[in-house]
Design brief:
Length: 697
């Protein structure tokens, strides 16, 4: 079997995604590989296909029990023999798995890093033919990374202890240049293929909000995306419980996930989310790693994460299928203070000396400041992320809040000179708050305590508010003119660029929100509408609300009479049952001009009359001239659909017990159903020549 045949047979794809084939070729040739690929790029395929083609067993070192279970379940469903060895197995199950592995029953074995050192596992690998070692989430080996696992440091010694050294593949979705160098060095990779496919996810829309009421903002975001799957990340278990209860009380189908739940409940809630029994998962960062759900349309961070690596990894779980999706962060100053407290008061690891522990704490605080900078910047959010990971990006992306919102350029050169002068004349000993109070000429306790009112720059920016001065200071931090010192109480310092600002002639342009007019609407994400489509959608939603109030006795079934009944698949909810069959449709953009005026019948039209529930609907000559019949319901899949059914011209005898439709027009307000991905509102013209509408008892 070739790699292309394996890809087609087990995964159903004809071609590899970017970067996959190069990594597969390297591993098959016996060469080490280091692949940094964003979430959804198909990292697992890079080591699973070599595992199928190589003669021996592939060991995959993985950090999370849930990740292993999900990956093994998917592999077994695809027909690939796989197993996992971790703490979730009983001792008897563990021994049974090892016996089957010795017998050659498995091609891929997922193992926790702690298991590599156990005597039983060491005895097994000395006898087994290990043809490949794949290290998933390889950033866990770096103490400078966001998920350091000390047990990952034992992987190189384990590889060297094998009877023959197999190729080693290291895979991660997020790694700064420093972390990437650590992975290479600590895993002792030998002449590896180093591949970075790029961190940019073009289908993701980024936004930061700073709402006065987070719960109200969250509810608005979730309710504004009906029928779409989303993840809401919270910082603590308590927040998960409170937010999940809040959403449920307001009619949102939500589940919770955190490490404090019983394993059975976590697994049940995870499956409910994966199989669309609930639409929203409220979770800590324990959820999501290795979860293969491609149609997550939004990820909302209820609390700010402590670093950019965590944020981008979690946000990247949206839109893995490539469809436009949203990543929205609800920011508040309390998030910063909470994270600062957790970092400064956390117990250092026992294996670290005091100096290293302090360095790690300062590094964590620096990462927190960079995360805070993302929440406050007026720059392109995508550019900020890509620059953090060492990639070049244009100044605008036209797919984030800052690029699409209504900002204007303001010359802050004079203000910047005053800020730089104040910091310089006060000896670079004060933080953002004191400098802002001094420049505004505030009469506060801190100003009096440090005699800042005696400085020449006191009141130099008195025409601005403290918030506006702080905004300009953050802009200078973002531009590299200023920097914050490390430590728990950072102070402002000048960089080499400060001299150019103070004495140079170039201007500094800062984005600021316009106050005189509202912002233009941002680019619509998947399933979101603009212009006339949005107006029509609003009217359809109102119509659906009216129909929801109808008694459940008004049930309708639509099916082609020429096809056997057993070939249908039924969706039902709230009184409407629709049986679906395979109908060849052609899709085009919605023609709105004719539709906007056709939602209500004219005064002379009459509704179809209903006969007994056991017989088809009869249509009289008079009723047959009625032009529009409407169905609007939400199916059990959670997908809204509105149908405008146009009856064909012509007349029928009053005794006719069935009648024909010449056209069914389905106006889709989001995705049709699973497997058909629509990125806008579409009109499906299905010309069905022999359809009957029956009343269902």
């Amino acid at each position: 079997m070739t790699k292309e045949e394996a890809l087609k047979t087990y995964y159903g794809y004809d071609v590899f995604r970017g970067g996959q084939e190069a990594v597969i070729d390297a591993l098959l040739s016996g060469r080490d590989a280091l692949a940094i690929m964003p979430t959804g790029a198909g990292k697992s395929v890079c080591y699973q296909i070599p595992a199928l083609l190589l003669s021996g067993i592939t060991l995959v070192v993985s950090p999370l029990v849930s990740l292993m279970r999900d990956q093994v379940t998917q592999l077994v469903q695809m027909g690939i023999p796989a197993a996992f060895l971790n703490s979730s197995l009983t001792f008897r199950q563990y021994l049974l798995a090892l016996d089957r592995a010795r017998a050659g029953r498995y091609k891929i074995i997922y193992v926790a890093p702690e298991r590599l050192e156990t005597e039983g596992f060491q005895a097994f690998v000395r006898e087994a033919d290990i043809s490949l070692v794949a290290v998933d989430e390889a950033h866990c080996i770096s103490q400078w990374g966001q998920d350091f696992r000390p047990s990952y440091l034992n992987i190189p010694a384990f590889v060297e202890s094998l009877p023959h050294r197999p190729p080693v593949g290291a895979f991660t979705a997020t790694a700064t240049p420093d972390v990437k160098a650590d992975i290479h060095r600590l895993l002792d990779l030998q002449d590896p293929l180093e591949l970075t496919t790029g961190f940019d996810r073009e289908n993701l829309y980024f936004e930061v909000q700073q709402p006065a009421d987070k719960r109200a903002a969250l509810l608005e975001l979730v309710k504004g995306r009906p029928g779409k799957c989303g993840i809401v990340y919270c910082a603590t278990r308590k927040n998960v419980e409170e937010v999940c209860d809040f959403l449920r009380q307001r009619g949102v189908a939500a589940a919770r996930y955190h490490a404090g739940l019983d394993p059975e409940e976590r697994q049940r809630n995870q499956e409910d989310f994966l199989y669309d029994r609930v639409q929203v998962m409220v979770a800590t960062n324990a959820f999501g790693m290795g979860i293969d759900k491609s149609d997550v349309r939004y990820v909302i961070h209820y609390n700010m994460p402590k670093d950019m690596e965590s944020y981008y990894q979690e946000a990247g779980r949206a839109g893995r299928d490539g469809a436009p999706s949203s990543c929205i962060l609800l920011y508040s100053g309390q998030d910063v203070r909470t994270n600062e407290f957790l970092i400064t008061h956390s117990e250092p690891r026992e294996d670290l000396d005091p100096r290293t522990a302090e360095q790690l704490r300062e590094r964590d605080l620096q990462r927190l400041r960079q995360m805070t900078g993302y929440c406050r910047t007026r720059r392109c959010l995508r550019q900020y992320i890509l620059h953090y990971f060492g990639e070049h990006a244009p100044d605008t992306c036209s797919a984030c809040y800052n690029c699409l919102h209504n900002f204007e350029e303001v010359d802050v050169s004079r203000d910047a000179k005053a800020i730089v002068a104040c910091i310089a004349k006060t000896g670079q000993h004060f933080g953002v708050g004191v400098i802002a109070e001094t420049l505004c000429g505030a009469d506060t306790e801190r100003v009096r305590k440090y005699h800042m009112d005696r400085e020449d720059t006191y009141g130099a920016l008195g025409q601005l508010t403290q918030k506006e001065v702080q905004e300009r200071i953050r802009f200078l931090l973002d531009q590299g003119v200023l920097e914050l010192s490390p430590g728990q109480y950072p102070v402002l310092r000048l960089t080499e660029r400060a001299e150019d600002v103070m004495y140079g002639e170039s201007t500094l342009q800062m984005k600021t929100l316009r106050e005189d007019r509202s912002a233009p609407a941002r680019r619509a994400a998947a399933g979101e509408l603009e212009g006339d489509a949005a107006e029509l959608f609003g009217r359809l939603r109102a119509l659906r609300a009216q129909l929801n109030s109808l008694p459940t006795s008004s049930r309708v079934r639509v099916r082609p009479s020429s096809m056997p009944k057993r070939s249908f698949r039924t969706f039902s909810s709230r009184g409407v049952r629709v049986e679906r069959t395979s109908i060849s449709c052609s899709f085009s953009r919605v023609k709105l001009a004719a539709s906007l005026g056709s939602l209500a019948p004219s005064s002379g039209m009459k509704s179809p009359r209903w006969e007994s529930s056991s017989s088809p609907m009869g249509v009289s000559r008079e009723t047959g001239s009625w032009a529009i019949f409407r169905i609007s319901r939400t199916f059990s899949t959670g997908i809204p659909i509105s149908a405008l059914i146009s009856l064909g011209d012509g007349s029928w005898p009053s005794s006719c017990r069935s009648w024909r439709l010449t056209r069914i027009t389905l106006l889709m307000v989001s995705t049709m159903w699973t497997g058909m991905r629509m990125v806008r509102a579409w009109s499906a013209m299905a010309r069905v020549m022999a359809c009957r509408i029956h009343q269902v008892a």
